[in-house]
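Incident log, support desk, overnight shift.

02:14 A customer reports that sequence design results differ from what the structure should imply. Their input is reproduced verbatim below. On-call engineer (initials T.W.) acknowledged and began investigating.
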């Protein structure tokens, strides 16, 4: 087929029919990102029809490839400030982690945006009665006034119990044998702030193998002016081998590297942790982000009702990671795993275990390596991209594309309501085939025995050891070999 034989996109059946850019009259000739082999195939932002075509920062060669904030689905799509062209790309205060993210007045294009950013900055950076507000490092007020201090001799394996109403909590660990407790106060109006602090009724005690830090507030319904802009920070130094139970109604929590049983909870605030080893690790916030490093425990639970979850590595027999509204990202997860978000993207480097379930109601799912006896990935609205899949797999999307690359896979079941299904399998993959779509295509690299029609394929490849079933109600199903 020559270039002049192509009069419209209907003359192009597959990407094999496109031999040069001259064969592409408009971006309508590119029906999905499978037709784009490399960045060289993208000459301008018009060739990118939706952000599902952009996987990595390398796919964005200039700001011109990002035409509006709708191309940015989550903070993970923003690698540096150059990716933000105006404040319209900042949709919520969670997109601004510090005032470093706004470098000059040039980032504010109009008085309307100026007002919007001013409001956001007031929310994010102005101290409030919710104890140290939204700063990631509670130690930022360590130069405040020291209000209370206690030191106890302790042993490894003892317990720290913190239950406070309105304060940030910072727990550091050492190789020593002391528990050192310090409570700091800072505020806009220190007279009012001290009255607010006294009303908290702090109590620091040691009973048996327990160190307690508690508040018994005389009242809880303060406005910000009544508190004098009080910021309270509870700092604790304990041995690295210690059990920790920390709760604050309103504030951020940081816990250093630790070995022991861990329960961390805040009703309104962010949680950050270092490396943790223990029998049970339970981390929860009702409204805030969770950031953790390496976690190794029999059971791990990480839950936020409204915020992002970012972890490095988790090894656990039973693992639950859940947010109702936010993104989830992790480098390595191992164990019987349940990961879910109602509204957000899920991005994982590697996940392995006996049974893996990953679900989002509205967002993308991307996993670089899947190694499980059984795994299930589902989204109601978004694309799913899985690489190096081993074991049994089920993947479903109601509105989006499936892009699946198999390694040592067994039985595969794929469903796309309104999107394309792309499957790449080793040439020696052996399976019975049941493929259905508006158009079905299959590589000649497989030894196929069966019937191949325009919209279906039935039969077997390489002897039919396993089962490969793929369906799309409104898109193509393509099976390729490598």
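02:41 Re-run completed on a clean worker. Output:
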């Amino acid at each position: 087929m020559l270039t002049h034989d192509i009069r419209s996109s209907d003359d192009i059946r597959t990407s094999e029919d496109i031999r040069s850019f001259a064969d592409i009259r408009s971006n309508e000739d590119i029906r999905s990102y499978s037709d784009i082999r490399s960045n060289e195939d993208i000459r301008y932002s018009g060739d990118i029809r939706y952000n599902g075509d952009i996987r990595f920062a390398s796919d964005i060669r200039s700001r011109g490839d990002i035409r509006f904030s709708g191309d940015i689905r989550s903070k993970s799509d923003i690698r540096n400030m150059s990716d933000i062209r105006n404040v319209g790309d900042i949709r919520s205060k969670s997109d601004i982690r510090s005032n470093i993210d706004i470098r000059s007045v040039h980032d504010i294009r109009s008085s309307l945006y100026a007002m919007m950013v001013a409001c956001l900055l007031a929310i994010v950076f102005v101290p409030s009665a919710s104890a140290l507000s939204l700063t990631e490092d509670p130690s930022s007020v360590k130069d405040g006034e020291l209000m209370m201090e206690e030191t106890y001799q302790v042993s490894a394996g003892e317990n720290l119990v913190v239950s406070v109403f309105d304060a940030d909590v910072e727990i550091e660990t050492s190789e020593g044998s002391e528990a050192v407790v310090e409570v700091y106060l800072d505020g806009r109006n220190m007279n009012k702030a001290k009255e607010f602090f006294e009303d908290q009724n702090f109590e620091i005690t040691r009973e048996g193998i327990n160190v307690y830090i508690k508040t018994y507030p005389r009242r809880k319904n303060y406005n910000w002016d009544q508190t004098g802009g009080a910021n309270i920070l509870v700092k604790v130094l304990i041995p690295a081998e210690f059990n920790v139970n920390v709760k604050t109604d309103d504030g951020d929590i940081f816990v250093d590297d630790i070995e022991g049983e861990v329960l961390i909870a805040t009703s309104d605030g962010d949680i950050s942790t270092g490396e943790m080893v223990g029998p049970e690790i339970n981390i929860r916030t009702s409204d805030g982000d969770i950031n953790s490093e390496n976690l190794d425990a029999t059971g791990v639970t990480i839950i936020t009702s409204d915020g992002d979850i970012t972890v490095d590595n988790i090894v656990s027999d039973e693992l639950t990671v859940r947010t109702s509204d936010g993104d989830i990202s992790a480098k390595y997860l191992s164990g019987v795993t349940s990961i879910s978000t109602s509204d957000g993207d899920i991005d994982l480097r590697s996940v392995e275990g006996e049974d893996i379930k990953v679900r989002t109601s509205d967002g993308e799912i991307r996993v670089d390596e899947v190694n499980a006896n059984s795994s299930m990935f589902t989204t109601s609205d978004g694309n799913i991209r899985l690489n190096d899949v081993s074991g049994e797999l089920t993947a479903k999307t109601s509105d989006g594309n499936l892009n699946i690359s198999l390694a040592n896979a067994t039985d595969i079941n794929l469903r796309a309501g309104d999107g394309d299904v792309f499957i790449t399998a080793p040439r020696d993959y052996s399976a019975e085939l049941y493929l259905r779509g508006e158009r079905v295509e299959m590589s000649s690299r497989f030894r196929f025995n069966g019937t191949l029609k325009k919209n279906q394929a039935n039969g077997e490849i390489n002897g039919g050891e396993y089962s490969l079933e793929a369906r799309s109600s409104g898109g193509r199903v393509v099976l390729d070999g490598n």
